[in-house]
C-alpha cells in the first residue's frame, strides 16, 4: 500500500511537471513570436526615413501612455470604491458612538439627583483638598464627559 501510494504521488508529480513544462514551452513560443515581430518592426523602421521613424516612435509612445492612463484610471476607480466603503464604515462607527453616548446620558431621575449632590460635594472638597475628587466607579463615564464638556 505504501509503495502504491508513493508510486501514485510520483506519477502525479510527473504529470504536473509535464503540464508545467508544456505551459512554459507555450509561453516561450509566444515570446519568440513577439520577439520576431519586434525585430521585423525594428528592421523596417531602420529602412524608413527619419520623419517616419519619429512618427512611429510618437505613435508607440502615445499607445504606451494611453495604456498607462487606463491602468491609472482603473486604480483610481478602485481607490474611490474603497474610500466609499471606508466612509460607510466610519459613519456606522460614528452612529454607534452617538448611540453609546446617548445611552450614557439617559439615566434615571434619582441618579441625576445623586449626581447633582455629588457635584455640590465635589465643589466643597475642591476647596478643602485641591486636586482631589471622590466619586463612585459607575459615575466615571459621566464625570469624564462632564470634564470634557
TrEMBL record:
| Residue ranges of coiled coil | 3-96
Q: Print the keywords alphabetically.
A: Coiled coil
Q: Superkingdom of the source?
A: Eukaryota
In Swiss-Prot or TrEMBL terms, this protein is called MYO5B protein
Q: Which gene encodes it?
A: Myo5b_1
